[in-house]
Amino acid sequence: MFSLQHGNCTLGKCSVQASDAIPQAINIPVTFVVGTTDSTVITAVANGASYAQAFAPGVLMTVFGTGLAPVTRSANALPLPLDIAGVSATVNGVSAPLYYVSPGQVNVQVPYETGTGLAILGVNNNGQVASFPFTVAPAAPGLFTAPDGTLAYVVRARLASGQGLPRIGLRGTAKIYAGRVTLGYYLLRKPLAFVRRALGV
């Protein structure tokens, strides 16, 4: 028997310290479970663009399973809703925007507040809850493929104030301009990108 002096739990690990025990501190692996039901089950998750096991804050995640929603519906406005037909989702307890729900698939945007490392996805179908663990990386780029095999990507951008809407090209393309940069940065941009990716910053 020992008296607990200090306890600190984070996602994936719980540290317990006791002054009159040997050893005085132990680390206990922990998995926080959102909840489970028999009728709502998550069988797999994938990056919504690449279908790889690569997730980052802001990425569209495709969730596969059974009993995930009572009907098939898509979001019809921006910003994406947090509830469609009584279905909601969370990542580490933070509400996640929904793009699409159906009994076998839900498309969720991983909240930007999500930190890197182990995360828990929870899907609530009108009170029937399922959870699924996955790993969040600093970045997880993916390309969407059109039905004709054309690759596309999504750019999140802020338009300059006082400017009109951007003109889209003949094939649905738009030229993207950025601000001017120094010659040194321009010449070192690829090595710098490699270093940032390697360091996770």
Walk me through this protein's architecture:
This protein folds into 3 domains: 1-30, no CATH class; 41-136, Immunoglobulins (Immunoglobulin-like, Sandwich), CATH 2.60.40; 144-199, no CATH class. The chain is mainly beta and 201 residues long. It has 1 helix and 14 strands; from the N terminus they run ββββββββββββββα. It is flat, with a radius of gyration of 22 Å. β9 and β10 (105-109) form a beta hairpin. The strands form 4 sheets. A 5-stranded antiparallel sheet has the order 4-5-10-9-6, with no helix packed on it.
Write the layout of secondary structure elements.
Blueprint: E1 6-10, E2 13-17, E3 25-29, E4 41-47, E5 60-66, E6 73-74, E7 87-91, E8 94-96, E9 98-101, E10 105-109, E11 117-125, E12 128-136, E13 144-145, E14 151-152, H1 183-199
Antiparallel strand pairs: 1-2, 2-3, 4-5, 5-10, 6-9, 7-8, 7-11, 9-10, 11-12, 13-14
In summary, what is this structure?
The chain has 201 residues and is mainly beta. It has one helix at residues 183-199; strands at residues 6-10, 13-17, 25-29, 41-47, 60-66, 73-74, 87-91, 94-96, 98-101, 105-109, 117-125, 128-136, 144-145, 151-152.
Q: Which architecture name of the largest domain does CATH use? A: Sandwich
CATH class of the largest domain: Mainly Beta
The total count of strands amounts to: 14
From the spread of the alpha carbons, the general shape counts as flat
Separation of the first and last Cα atoms: 45 Å
Strand count, sense and barrel status of the largest sheet are: 5 strands, antiparallel
Radius of gyration: 22 Å
Judged by helices, strands and strand pairing, the structural class is mainly beta
Largest sheet, order of strands side by side?
A: 4-5-10-9-6
CATH homologous group name of the largest domain? Immunoglobulins
How large is the share of residues in beta strands?
25-35%
Q: Could you spell the SSE succession in H and E letters?
A: EEEEEEEEEEEEEEH
Tell me roughly what share of residues is in helical segments: under 10%
CATH domain fold name of the largest domain? Immunoglobulin-like
Q: What's the domain count?
A: 3
Low-confidence stretches are: 1-10
Q: Count every helix, treating DSSP H or I runs of 4 or more residues as helices.
A: 1
The average pLDDT score comes to 79
